[in-house]
Protein backbone atom coordinates (compact mmCIF):
# COMPACT_ATOMS: atom_id res chain seq x y z
CA UNK A 1 0.00 0.00 0.00
CA UNK A 2 2.98 2.30 -0.36
CA UNK A 3 1.31 3.91 -3.39
CA UNK A 4 -1.14 5.72 -1.11
CA UNK A 5 1.39 6.89 1.48
CA UNK A 6 1.94 10.62 1.83
CA UNK A 7 5.26 12.02 3.02
CA UNK A 8 6.20 15.48 4.22
CA UNK A 9 9.82 16.33 3.45
CA UNK A 10 10.17 19.30 5.78
CA UNK A 11 8.85 20.90 8.93
CA UNK A 12 6.32 23.63 8.15
CA UNK A 13 5.68 26.82 10.04
CA UNK A 14 2.42 27.26 11.96
CA UNK A 15 -0.68 28.60 10.18
CA UNK A 16 0.47 27.53 6.73
CA UNK A 17 -1.26 25.46 4.10
CA UNK A 18 0.62 22.39 5.32
CA UNK A 19 -0.48 22.74 8.94
CA UNK A 20 -4.03 23.13 7.65
CA UNK A 21 -3.51 19.96 5.61
CA UNK A 22 -2.39 18.11 8.71
CA UNK A 23 -5.47 19.29 10.58
CA UNK A 24 -7.59 18.00 7.72
CA UNK A 25 -5.78 14.66 7.80
CA UNK A 26 -6.51 14.49 11.51
CA UNK A 27 -10.20 14.59 10.63
CA UNK A 28 -9.67 11.77 8.14
CA UNK A 29 -8.08 9.76 10.95
CA UNK A 30 -11.05 10.43 13.21
CA UNK A 31 -13.36 9.29 10.40
CA UNK A 32 -11.47 6.02 10.04
CA UNK A 33 -10.25 6.79 6.51
CA UNK A 34 -6.51 6.92 7.13
CA UNK A 35 -3.94 6.01 9.78
CA UNK A 36 -0.80 7.94 10.64
CA UNK A 37 2.64 6.35 10.54
CA UNK A 38 1.61 2.71 10.20
CA UNK A 39 5.30 1.74 10.04
CA UNK A 40 6.24 3.64 13.23
CA UNK A 41 3.21 4.82 15.28
CA UNK A 42 5.39 6.61 17.86
CA UNK A 43 7.10 8.82 15.26
CA UNK A 44 7.74 12.40 16.44
CA UNK A 45 5.16 14.90 15.26
CA UNK A 46 7.83 17.09 13.65
CA UNK A 47 9.55 14.26 11.82
CA UNK A 48 10.04 14.75 8.06
CA UNK A 49 9.13 11.07 7.68
CA UNK A 50 5.61 11.63 9.02
CA UNK A 51 3.16 9.85 6.70
CA UNK A 52 -0.40 8.65 6.27
CA UNK A 53 -1.87 5.50 4.81
CA UNK A 54 -5.41 4.66 3.81
CA UNK A 55 -7.04 2.09 6.08
CA UNK A 56 -7.83 -1.35 4.62
CA UNK A 57 -11.55 -0.73 5.25
CA UNK A 58 -11.52 2.60 3.41
CA UNK A 59 -9.49 1.08 0.57
CA UNK A 60 -12.03 -1.72 0.15
CA UNK A 61 -14.79 0.87 0.12
CA UNK A 62 -13.04 2.96 -2.55
CA UNK A 63 -12.44 -0.09 -4.72
CA UNK A 64 -16.16 -0.93 -4.59
CA UNK A 65 -17.27 2.47 -5.87
CA UNK A 66 -19.55 2.28 -8.92
CA UNK A 67 -19.68 -1.50 -8.59
CA UNK A 68 -22.50 -3.82 -7.65
CA UNK A 69 -21.29 -4.26 -4.07
CA UNK A 70 -20.92 -0.49 -3.41
CA UNK A 71 -24.05 -0.02 -1.29
CA UNK A 72 -23.27 -3.10 0.77
CA UNK A 73 -19.69 -1.98 1.39
CA UNK A 74 -20.83 1.55 2.24
CA UNK A 75 -23.37 0.31 4.78
CA UNK A 76 -20.75 -2.02 6.29
CA UNK A 77 -18.21 0.80 6.56
CA UNK A 78 -20.68 3.23 8.13
CA UNK A 79 -21.78 0.62 10.65
CA UNK A 80 -18.22 0.00 11.80
CA UNK A 81 -16.90 3.54 11.35
CA UNK A 82 -19.41 6.04 12.81
CA UNK A 83 -17.30 8.89 11.47
CA UNK A 84 -16.86 12.53 12.39
CA UNK A 85 -20.50 13.44 12.91
CA UNK A 86 -20.87 10.78 15.60
CA UNK A 87 -17.46 11.54 17.08
CA UNK A 88 -18.06 15.27 17.34
CA UNK A 89 -21.70 15.08 18.39
CA UNK A 90 -20.71 14.20 21.97
CA UNK A 91 -23.60 11.79 22.22
CA UNK A 92 -25.03 11.16 25.65
CA UNK A 93 -27.58 8.79 27.07
CA UNK A 94 -31.01 10.38 27.27
CA UNK A 95 -33.98 8.57 28.75
CA UNK A 96 -36.61 8.15 26.09
CA UNK A 97 -40.31 7.97 26.91
CA UNK A 98 -42.71 7.26 24.03
CA UNK A 99 -45.20 9.93 23.05
CA UNK A 100 -48.71 8.57 23.63
CA UNK A 101 -50.71 7.96 20.47
CA UNK A 102 -53.90 6.05 19.86
CA UNK A 103 -52.87 2.55 18.78
CA UNK A 104 -55.10 2.81 15.72
CA UNK A 105 -53.93 6.30 14.81
CA UNK A 106 -52.12 6.93 11.55
CA UNK A 107 -51.07 10.46 10.64
CA UNK A 108 -50.55 11.07 6.94
CA UNK A 109 -48.64 14.22 6.10
CA UNK A 110 -47.72 15.75 2.78
CA UNK A 111 -44.43 14.51 1.35
CA UNK A 112 -41.51 16.88 1.93
CA UNK A 113 -38.74 17.99 4.28
CA UNK A 114 -41.22 19.87 6.48
CA UNK A 115 -43.17 16.68 7.20
CA UNK A 116 -39.94 14.76 7.80
CA UNK A 117 -38.93 17.31 10.44
CA UNK A 118 -42.38 17.07 12.04
CA UNK A 119 -41.97 13.29 12.19
CA UNK A 120 -38.61 13.76 13.94
CA UNK A 121 -40.17 16.18 16.44
CA UNK A 122 -42.86 13.70 17.39
CA UNK A 123 -40.64 10.63 17.56
CA UNK A 124 -37.28 12.02 18.70
CA UNK A 125 -37.92 15.29 20.54
CA UNK A 126 -41.12 14.08 22.18
CA UNK A 127 -39.62 10.87 23.52
CA UNK A 128 -36.68 12.72 25.06
CA UNK A 129 -38.06 15.94 26.48
CA UNK A 130 -41.82 15.65 26.99
CA UNK A 131 -42.43 13.47 30.07
CA UNK A 132 -45.17 10.90 29.31
CA UNK A 133 -46.14 13.21 26.49
CA UNK A 134 -49.30 13.23 24.42
CA UNK A 135 -49.57 14.51 20.89
CA UNK A 136 -52.37 17.07 20.67
CA UNK A 137 -51.87 18.73 17.32
CA UNK A 138 -49.91 18.41 14.08
CA UNK A 139 -50.03 20.93 11.29
CA UNK A 140 -49.50 20.02 7.66
CA UNK A 141 -48.37 21.84 4.56
CA UNK A 142 -51.10 20.24 2.48
CA UNK A 143 -53.94 20.91 4.90
CA UNK A 144 -54.00 23.27 7.85
CA UNK A 145 -54.58 20.58 10.48
CA UNK A 146 -52.94 17.22 9.90
CA UNK A 147 -54.14 15.92 13.29
CA UNK A 148 -55.92 17.43 16.27
CA UNK A 149 -57.06 15.78 19.51
CA UNK A 150 -60.15 17.92 20.03
CA UNK A 151 -61.36 15.85 22.99
CA UNK A 152 -58.09 16.38 24.88
CA UNK A 153 -58.10 20.10 24.15
CA UNK A 154 -61.64 20.29 25.51
CA UNK A 155 -60.70 18.28 28.59
CA UNK A 156 -57.84 20.71 29.24
CA UNK A 157 -60.19 23.65 28.86
CA UNK A 158 -58.38 25.00 25.80
CA UNK A 159 -60.60 26.62 23.20
CA UNK A 160 -59.02 26.26 19.80
CA UNK A 161 -58.89 29.42 17.76
CA UNK A 162 -59.82 28.39 14.24
CA UNK A 163 -58.49 31.66 12.89
CA UNK A 164 -55.27 31.69 14.91
CA UNK A 165 -51.91 30.72 13.46
CA UNK A 166 -51.22 27.41 15.17
CA UNK A 167 -47.69 26.10 15.77
CA UNK A 168 -46.58 23.09 13.74
CA UNK A 169 -46.70 20.63 16.65
CA UNK A 170 -48.26 20.75 20.12
CA UNK A 171 -47.20 18.20 22.73
CA UNK A 172 -48.69 17.95 26.22
CA UNK A 173 -46.74 16.81 29.30
CA UNK A 174 -49.41 15.81 31.86
CA UNK A 175 -46.83 15.11 34.56
CA UNK A 176 -45.86 18.79 34.65
CA UNK A 177 -48.92 20.42 33.12
CA UNK A 178 -46.89 21.87 30.23
CA UNK A 179 -47.72 22.58 26.62
CA UNK A 180 -44.85 22.42 24.15
CA UNK A 181 -45.54 24.78 21.24
CA UNK A 182 -43.12 23.77 18.51
CA UNK A 183 -42.29 25.42 15.22
CA UNK A 184 -40.61 23.27 12.55
CA UNK A 185 -38.39 25.57 10.50
CA UNK A 186 -37.98 24.61 6.88
CA UNK A 187 -39.77 27.33 4.96
CA UNK A 188 -41.15 29.60 7.69
CA UNK A 189 -39.18 31.32 10.42
CA UNK A 190 -38.43 30.38 14.05
CA UNK A 191 -40.05 31.44 17.29
CA UNK A 192 -38.84 35.03 17.15
CA UNK A 193 -40.07 37.87 19.38
CA UNK A 194 -43.20 38.44 17.30
CA UNK A 195 -44.10 34.75 17.10
CA UNK A 196 -43.45 34.37 20.83
CA UNK A 197 -46.09 37.02 21.55
CA UNK A 198 -48.52 35.55 19.02
CA UNK A 199 -48.37 32.11 20.61
CA UNK A 200 -48.65 33.58 24.10
CA UNK A 201 -51.80 35.40 23.06
CA UNK A 202 -53.23 32.38 21.24
CA UNK A 203 -52.92 30.20 24.36
CA UNK A 204 -53.29 32.85 27.06
CA UNK A 205 -56.40 31.18 28.50
CA UNK A 206 -54.76 27.79 28.86
CA UNK A 207 -54.13 27.08 32.53
CA UNK A 208 -50.87 25.35 31.60
CA UNK A 209 -47.22 26.24 31.38
CA UNK A 210 -46.17 27.17 27.86
CA UNK A 211 -42.81 26.12 26.45
CA UNK A 212 -41.70 27.53 23.11
CA UNK A 213 -39.47 25.42 20.89
CA UNK A 214 -37.95 26.02 17.47
CA UNK A 215 -36.92 22.84 15.65
CA UNK A 216 -34.38 22.67 12.83
CA UNK A 217 -33.18 19.77 10.72
CA UNK A 218 -29.50 20.79 10.90
CA UNK A 219 -27.15 23.15 12.74
CA UNK A 220 -26.37 24.84 9.45
CA UNK A 221 -30.06 25.71 9.05
CA UNK A 222 -30.24 26.93 12.64
CA UNK A 223 -27.29 29.28 12.04
CA UNK A 224 -29.31 31.15 9.42
CA UNK A 225 -31.92 32.14 12.01
CA UNK A 226 -29.84 32.39 15.20
CA UNK A 227 -30.13 36.18 15.41
CA UNK A 228 -33.94 36.04 15.26
CA UNK A 229 -34.72 33.40 17.90
CA UNK A 230 -36.61 34.70 20.91
CA UNK A 231 -35.20 34.70 24.42
CA UNK A 232 -36.91 32.38 26.89
CA UNK A 233 -37.29 29.69 24.24
CA UNK A 234 -35.57 26.45 23.31
CA UNK A 235 -33.94 25.21 20.10
CA UNK A 236 -33.79 21.56 19.09
CA UNK A 237 -31.88 20.18 16.09
CA UNK A 238 -32.97 16.87 14.57
CA UNK A 239 -29.46 15.80 13.50
CA UNK A 240 -28.31 16.06 17.15
CA UNK A 241 -31.47 14.98 19.00
CA UNK A 242 -29.85 14.48 22.42
CA UNK A 243 -29.03 18.18 22.81
CA UNK A 244 -30.99 21.38 23.43
CA UNK A 245 -29.96 25.00 22.98
CA UNK A 246 -31.44 27.29 25.62
CA UNK A 247 -31.97 30.95 24.86
CA UNK A 248 -31.43 32.59 28.22
CA UNK A 249 -34.22 32.99 30.73
CA UNK A 250 -34.85 32.23 34.37
CA UNK A 251 -35.85 28.65 33.58
CA UNK A 252 -34.35 25.86 31.52
CA UNK A 253 -36.93 23.84 29.57
CA UNK A 254 -39.83 25.15 31.59
CA UNK A 255 -42.61 27.73 31.40
CA UNK A 256 -42.23 31.36 32.45
Task: Give the class-level CATH name of the largest domain.
Answer: Alpha Beta
Number of strands: 10
Question: What's the quaternary structure here?
Answer: single chain
**Which radius of gyration do the C-alpha atoms yield?**
24 Å
Biggest sheet record: 7 strands, mixed
CATH homologous superfamily of the largest domain, by name? Answer: BsuBI/PstI restriction endonuclease, C-terminal domain
Q: Strand order, biggest sheet?
A: 5-4-6-7-8-9-10
> Helix/strand/pairing class, anyone?
alpha+beta
- The overall pLDDT average reads 80
In total, the number of domains comes to 2
CATH topology of the largest domain: Trna Endonuclease, Chain: A, domain 1
List the uncertain runs: 1-12
In a few lines, what is going on in this structure?
The protein has helices spanning 17-30, 56-63, 70-80, 83-88, 113-129, 150-155, 193-202, 219-225, and strands at residues 6-7, 34-36, 51-54, 134-139, 145-148, 169-173, 178-184, 209-216, 233-237, 244-247. By secondary structure, the chain is an alpha+beta fold.
Amino acid sequence: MDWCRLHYAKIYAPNTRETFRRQTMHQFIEAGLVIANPDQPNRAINSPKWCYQITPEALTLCQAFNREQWLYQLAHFQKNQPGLRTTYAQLREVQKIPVTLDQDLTINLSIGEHSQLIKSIIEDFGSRYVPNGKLLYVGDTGQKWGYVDSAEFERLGIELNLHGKMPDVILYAPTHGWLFLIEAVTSHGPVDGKRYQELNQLFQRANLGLIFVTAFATRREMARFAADISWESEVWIAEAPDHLIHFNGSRFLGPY
